[in-house]
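Task card 7
Instruction: Convert sequence to structure tokens.
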Amino acid sequence: MTGERVHAEIRVPHEPATDLADPARLVVEYLDFYRDTLLRKLDGMSEHDLRTSRVPSGWTPLALVKHLAYVELRWLRWCFAGEEVEHPRGNPDVRDAEWVLEEGDTFETVTAFYREQCERSRKIAAAADLADVAVSWEADAIPRPTLAWILFHLVQEYARHLGQLDVVRELSDGVVGA
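Output:
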């Protein structure tokens, strides 16, 4: 029907168990819940909607995936593990590169990069203790963050961006839910 919006709802998967008391498992399971939610929220979006901004700042749903891939890379690989990463914020020749879709960035390449970063993050976190501190840190006046701090920071980053994506998805095609 022309001019009418489709109203659909994404089914909400279960969050981590409500009786889970181990903080290490809880933060990791919530982080994975949010990682999966990001991809689930994009499922079924048209190529046009994935690449179209609905907000004044100009970010697009697919660029959000790219940003969160770089967030994973920067916080776990570069900061915490101290891996040498040539460009932890993306292409240095592009302003705000981690938020910009460049030539060659497709849904498949961006989500593959995102999944790769998430998998590497999982392995880094699994091999460490929550009290371990970051190897690389640029803020000399602030103590190096612990793995626990970094993981909780990622949880809040995902929660905030997924809330924004909720609104963008609803504006794009009327789909609501987690």
